[in-house]
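Severity: low
Component: inverse-folding endpoint
Summary: output formatting inconsistent between runs
Steps to reproduce: submit the following structure tokens with default settings.
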């Protein structure tokens, strides 16, 4: 296809504004081979003929444009983000972006020739430059692309208004690609929401257990000391998970224990002990009581030189079990929230993620291992329906009731399918993203030597014995150097500082909850009186006033500096509320009554939300007060009571 001089200039102008270097290079080099441009008498009548199957982009370009615009101006006028499969002739997007409410249009296209042709005909330079028009090549989308899109603003905030539209019927031919794309976007929105937290009860338990565990954390080695003392000690790490396939790898693992760093999940620790395979690290993530069972044992001399790395929110029984048998352990923290408010940087931060395998992979990377090997990382049921190895503490079959084996995924080896479940799929997606990042940055090589279960994209699939024979030639100098705790003076300082900040947070909970309650009662009273007013305009004025009062409270809630100690408990609540609120935001009122009802719903939702915020803050206050006793006892044991009294009096 030939373009005139002005069209070539326009294409280059568009190309220079495109903030996607990979797509830019592809379009620059692309030849147009199977599309013919078909122009009608009207300037909006732009069509393409697919010469491979003799179909057209549109049956009637102008009529279809009118229908789409009418639909979007009526139903989706206030949507900040819209998603389309297929670039089409681009005129629809040019028209939609004249709407000030549409901040971004996200376009996915498989046939790059279509984009190249249309960038010769329409000027999108400003829209591309300002990222109002985002174009993705379906053929080269990677895991990170999905996650970056779904986890950033405003795409994340409006995830619950997401839907994917075909820009024309022509794209129905790509049904499989469309479904796959849609599933990937939905999956990554779910992952991004989960990363923000979705369970306030979980968070509250974590905060309470953090405060209870704090003296233990501060008197044991900090995580940062581990990193300083043990970087670059080994080229290869083996991560031992507890999938059904683990049993068949134990003999090989035992042969190579001294030639690699062994990082074990808490659930695999008793299994390794039974087979006399000593790990260098045992990692634990969960905060629930059942996890403590993995440490309710006494393996005697076997435990010597193992470092147990335990999440700071672990159940107190886990710590009790560790202490009972004098095991060497440290508590690490992940993420932000109350621990960030306490400013205990030396004690974190370990890699994020939802499973022990995720944090094990992060630890292996941070310790600068060049090769990371997974075994027992099935993330799927075995053929006999088992979910764990024979020696697993709670038995090889899942304890969950009424399991339906209906969700399948690609198996290790890529030739068959295996049964899995949603949470394992989530774990796999996150792990695949981490592996992708490591591959892109050339940080390490990742091997999946599970020889069973689900395929993990990005990891090299090879037999465990073969990889060990190739990589593990020499013994390491074990045990690794001992990780030291902080000096007593430094411990005293951090214990007192933490005590001060906890009491400061208790006072903050009390003061802010009272302020919130006062504002809540005022708004609720005014809202309740709306039933007594018959004049719609007068009622609308009251609602507008209440919305202003609501915004004042929300401004305080969004003050990151002053609300830092409350963000962890309020985070999941705020996230879920804002995601649901987006559905109200995009409602398009047609009449004064519609507008009134939208405002009414907006205020009503906020009243319920403020009540929940109040309850959450009071719950945190209670958790802090109930769990501070171990810290107080530790300070008394260290003869620091006079400093405690000063803090209490200052309160």
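Observed output (run 2 of 3):
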């Amino acid at each position: 296809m030939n373009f005139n001089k002005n069209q070539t200039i326009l294409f280059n102008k568009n190309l220079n504004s495109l903030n996607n270097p990979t797509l830019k290079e592809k379009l620059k080099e692309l030849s147009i081979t199977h599309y013919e441009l078909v122009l009608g008498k009207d300037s909006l009548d732009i069509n393409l003929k697919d010469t491979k199957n003799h179909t057209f982009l549109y049956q009637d370009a102008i009529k279809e444009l009118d229908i789409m615009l009418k639909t979007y101006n009526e139903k989706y006028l206030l949507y900040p983000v819209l998603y389309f499969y297929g670039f089409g002739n681009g005129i629809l997007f040019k028209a939609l972006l004249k709407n000030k409410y549409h901040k971004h249009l996200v376009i996915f296209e498989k046939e790059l020739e279509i984009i190249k042709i249309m960038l010769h005909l329409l000027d999108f330079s400003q829209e591309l430059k300002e990222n109002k028009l985002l174009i993705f090549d379906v053929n080269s989308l990677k895991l990170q692309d999905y996650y970056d899109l779904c986890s950033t603003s405003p795409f994340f905030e409006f995830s619950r208004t997401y839907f994917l539209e075909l820009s024309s019927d022509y794209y129905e031919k790509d049904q499989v690609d469309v479904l796959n794309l849609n599933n990937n976007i939905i999956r990554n929105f779910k992952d991004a929401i989960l990363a923000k937290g979705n369970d306030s009860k979980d968070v509250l338990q974590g905060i309470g257990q953090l405060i209870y565990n704090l003296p233990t954390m501060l008197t044991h080695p900090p995580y940062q000391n581990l990193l300083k003392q043990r970087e670059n000690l080994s080229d290869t790490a083996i991560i031992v998970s507890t999938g059904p396939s683990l049993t068949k790898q134990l003999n090989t693992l035992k042969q190579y224990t001294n030639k690699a760093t062994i990082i074990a999940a808490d659930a695999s620790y008793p299994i390794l002990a039974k087979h006399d395979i000593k790990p260098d690290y045992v990692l634990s993530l969960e905060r629930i009581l059942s996890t403590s069972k993995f440490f309710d044992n006494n393996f005697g001399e076997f435990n010597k030189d193992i470092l147990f790395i335990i999440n700071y929110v672990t159940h107190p029984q886990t710590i009790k079990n560790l202490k009972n048998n004098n095991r060497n352990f440290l508590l690490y923290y992940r993420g932000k929230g109350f621990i960030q408010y306490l400013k205990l940087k030396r004690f974190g931060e370990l890699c994020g993620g939802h499973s022990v395998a995720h944090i094990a992979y992060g630890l292996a990377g941070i310790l600068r291992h060049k090769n990371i090997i997974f075994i027992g990382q099935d993330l799927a049921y075995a053929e006999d329906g088992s979910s764990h190895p024979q020696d697993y503490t709670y038995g090889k079959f899942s304890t969950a009731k009424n399991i339906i084996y209906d969700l399948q995924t690609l198996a290790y080896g890529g030739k068959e399918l295996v049964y899995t479940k949603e949470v394992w799929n989530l774990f796999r997606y996150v792990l695949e993203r981490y592996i992708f990042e490591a591959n892109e940055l050339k940080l390490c090589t990742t091997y999946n030597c599970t020889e069973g279960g689900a395929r993990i994209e990005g990891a090299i699939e090879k037999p465990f014995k073969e990889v060990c024979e190739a990589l593990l030639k020499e013994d390491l100098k074990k045990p690794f150097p001992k990780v030291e705790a902080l000096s007593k003076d430094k411990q005293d300082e951090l214990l007192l500082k933490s005590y001060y900040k906890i009491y400061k947070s208790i006072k903050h909970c009390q003061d802010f909850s009272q302020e919130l309650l006062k504002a809540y009662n005022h708004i609720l009273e005014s809202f309740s009186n709306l039933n007594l007013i018959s004049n719609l305009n007068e009622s609308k004025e009251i609602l507008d006033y209440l919305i202003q009062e609501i915004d004042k409270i929300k401004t305080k809630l969004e003050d990151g500096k002053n609300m830092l100690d409350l963000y962890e408990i309020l985070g999941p609540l705020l996230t879920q509320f804002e995601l649901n609120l987006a559905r109200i935001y995009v409602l398009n009122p047609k009449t004064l009554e519609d507008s009134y009802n939208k405002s009414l719903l907006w205020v009503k939702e906020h009243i319920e939300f403020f009540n929940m915020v109040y309850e959450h803050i009071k719950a945190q206050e209670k958790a802090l007060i109930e769990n501070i006793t171990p810290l107080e006892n530790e300070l008394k044991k260290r003869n620091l009571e006079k400093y405690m009294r000063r803090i209490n009096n200052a309160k």
